[in-house]
Amino acid sequence: MKEFFPVLRNCSLFDGIEDENLSGLLACLGAKVTAYHKHQTIVREGEPAKYVGILLTGAAQLVREDYYGNRSIMARIEPTDLFGESFACAGIPALPVSVAASEDCQVMLIDCRRITMSCTNACAFHSRMIYNLLQVVSKKNLAFHQKLEILSQRTTREKLMTYLLAQAKLHHSNTFTIPYDRQSLADYLGVERSAMSAEISKLRRDGVIACEKSTFRLL
Fold first, then answer.
1. Contact call for residues 73 and 179 (beta carbons, < 8 A)
2. 3-state SS of the chain?
3. Which pLDDT does position 36 carry in this prediction?
4. Pairwise CA distance, residues 9 & 139, whole Å
5. How confident is the model at residue 134, as a pLDDT?
6. Are 155 and 161 in contact (CB under 8 A)?
7. Given this model, what pLDDT does residue 119 score?
8. What pLDDT, on the 0 to 100 scale, is given for residue 121?
9. What's the pLDDT score for residue 202?
10. What is the pLDDT of residue 178?
């Protein structure tokens, strides 16, 4: 586990917990690390919602599929990011979404009950971790509110511009690189790729944006 300490040190769940306590804490939690290949499903919709996941290496995506198999990307997951914590804490019986590897990756899975219930050793740093988990869940709720703001826009152009403006604000610059390719961006916005590509071309012609692959500049 020690090879992952540099990543875990920057994970919000372990904020304020020193390295000398981390080994004991991970053993207390029964943490397990598993490797996944690109496009492999890490956790699947319908499975029990009991695990908190931490991405250690690579990249993954939180995805949802409708009845017809149309995919919508809810969020991108990068090293140090948590996933599944909101559903596990809510106590729902089954996951409403899936998590899939978008690159080869390694994932740590922890049973949420091992986090929220104090261990028999009454570890002092266990309380700190519960507080950290609450902070993570709260921040995720704010991120999903932003996603709802994007999806509430009526047209593809409005959804695209709402997203790009939010990214510019996030990066404190009118030039920024987004974490999606064209297909993944369309899935995130909930629109057809062809319609989105057409709107990007129109925005470039109108002098609103300039872009090269995943790098955009607001003009």
1. no
2. CHHHHHHHCCCHHHCCCCHHHHHHHHHHHCCEEEEECCCCEEECCCCECCEEEEEEECCEEEEEECCCCCEEEEEEECCCCEECHHHHHHCCCECCCEEEECCCEEEEEEEHHHHHCCCCCCCHHHHHHHHHHHHHHHHHHHHHHHHHHHHCCCCHHHHHHHHHHHHHHHHCCCEEECCCCHHHHHHHHCCCHHHHHHHHHHHHHCCCEEEECCEEEEC
3. 97
4. 19
5. 87
6. no
7. 62
8. 60
9. 95
10. 93
Q: CA 138 → CA 41, 48, 134, 141, distances in Å? A: 26, 22, 6, 5
Distance separating the N- and C-terminal Cα atoms of the chain? 47
CA–CA gap between residue 172 and residue 92 (Å, rounded) = 37
Per the listing, tokens 């507080």 go with 131
What's the pTM?
Answer: 0.71
Count other C-beta atoms under 10 Å from residue 23's C-beta.
12
Please tell me the distance from the alpha carbon of residue 110 to that of residue 219, in angstroms, as a whole number.
45
Please report the pLDDT score of residue 65 as a whole number: 84
Rounded Cα distance between 85 and 180, Å, is 23
Q: Fill in the amino acid letter for 159.
A: K
pLDDT averaged over consecutive 10-residue blocks of the chain (219 residues)? 88 87 85 95 93 96 84 88 89 90 96 78 73 84 81 92 92 93 89 93 95 94
Q: How far apart are CA 217 and CA 119, in angstroms?
A: 50
The residue type at 81: D
